[in-house]
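Cast an eye over my tokenised protein here and flag anything odd:

===
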Amino acid sequence: MDGPALDGREDGFSGLPGNLMMWILILGELAVFGVAFLGFSVARALDPVAFGSGQAHLNGPLGAVNTMVLITSGFIAARGVAAGRRGRIAGARAAMLGAAAVGSVFLAVKAVEYAATLGAGLSIDSGGFFTLYFLLTGFHALHVVMGIVVLAIVARWPSVENLETGAAFWHMVDLIWVILYPLVYLIR
């Protein structure tokens, strides 16, 4: 008979980094966003002209900047996990706080984009495209806020499991944006 997993878990999921409950949450969140992305795709297929017109009003370059911001932040979080695994607690804390700070840049850029869109007279009531645009990007931005909070908490209590758990959530936020950006901004 094998001994217990090195991380103390004997639940059969010891290969997953971080806490199993976070992975269950992540799968649930991915399912919710997946359904939302499917709904967006169906709505676009039903009204491609209106959706193409709506996309023309978006700031694709700001969306690209935000993509790079989240990828960079995810890299910093991964470096924090690596530092924690090597016992470099100060480095892990700094990396998680750095990832949170860079994640905050995403929110600032998104605020600029929303201000420009709203300033052009386009709102959640400006047709199906903008209803879905604001709902999808707003729901994602809420997850960015939650992720920043998680990263800050993990920086305060940087056990390896906490670091892995926080980074897993943050990478889910990254992954959702990497799908959302081309779906909403680029694909015609």
